[in-house]
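Review form for a predicted model. The reviewer records the input and the model, then writes brief findings.
Reviewer: anonymous (R2)
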Amino acid sequence: MTHAPKKIALAYSGGLDTSVMIPWLLEHHPGCEVHAIVGDVGQDPAELVGIEDKAIASGAVHCEVADLTRTFLEEYAFPMAISGAVYEGRYLLGTSIARPIIAKAQVDYARRMGCDAVCHGCTGKGNDQVRFESTFAALAPELEIIAPWRHWEIRSREEALQYLAARGIACSASLEKIYSRDDNIWHISHEGGELEDPWNPPPDDMWTRTVDPLHAPDAPGVVTIRFEAGRPVTLDGEPLGAVELLTELNRRGGEHGVGRIDIVENRLVGMKSRGCYETPGGTILMEALRGLEELVLDRRTLRLRERLAHDFSDLVYDGQWWTPAREAMMASFASIAGRLDGEVEVRLSKGTAVTTRRRSPNSLYSESFATFGADEVYDQSHAEGFIRLFSLPSRIAAMQSANGSETAEAAAEGAGS
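Model under review:
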């Protein structure tokens, strides 16, 4: 720190780590005030009950819960779904995409409270420290950053609980907690515990949003989503807001075991980590969007979207949301999605979500051209000239190779004579 902070805005969750941080900050920065900001991004409502009082009882002078759920979906998660970004081919970026909006809310809160420093509870091993601090750098470089996990002596859950007990601070956490979880309306993640050995299968009692696909109903479920410019607007014909629509998709997908993954991923900081993620509604939504794209986008545009999606997944994962690159890429995705109007039916069955029907006023599919039956619009003899031109480079290379071989043979015969 370059100076002693007077007011610190803490990203507060009410969990063990951030509960410890309030007294720790007060002890290590005498005379400072701690202001707690909670980002409500659609996590389990039980996590937010009494959270303001809990922060005050721990030593904060003020605590505010910011309602971010609708904005999170409309301005972060849904645009990401349109992009098709999936990290390392499997992870739907549920934690990654929530960090920029939470960190922005923390910056906004810090400025309203007149804070001169911000604090987060991310460890020095993870990706989230980069996501939070990259947001701070982009939006409020004048604020000091405090990252207790990189400095304090607490190294275990037991030590954290002892720290609070010694100061008479109540905490609902216990030694029985096994997993580290991150929860929002888009997904829930599970890390730690038995998962740290990649040979251990995920325990059945770990999953919270989805039933075991093996125990899902035998009868499949069906959902129909209508999109306008790539954004979902109705579910089974009923107009719904973003929060209501995804909440219902989460419920239905969870009933059929949709959206589970178990991945060993490459963290930004260099190590591999194992995580289990549940994203039922997001999985359905992204499957429906891909089904609609197949109908509407021409090949070159679709390939462009796919190439950009790969880079965009890295950008989101790496915490580079508040950058010109993200703005430019999102402008491209929005332009591409301008034609993504239509309805898609997705079948949910035993852990899978599969597009079964789709229609769009902007469809490029023409049955009269694509049919295997008799037609009067496509002269198949025209394909011969197309193929000759399309394969012309290969034909020229083969001819040159043949001519070269003939010349070599002639030279060899001449040398022999």
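Findings: The first strand starts at residue 7 and ends at 11.
Further findings: The chain has a mean pLDDT of 92.
Recommendation: see findings above.
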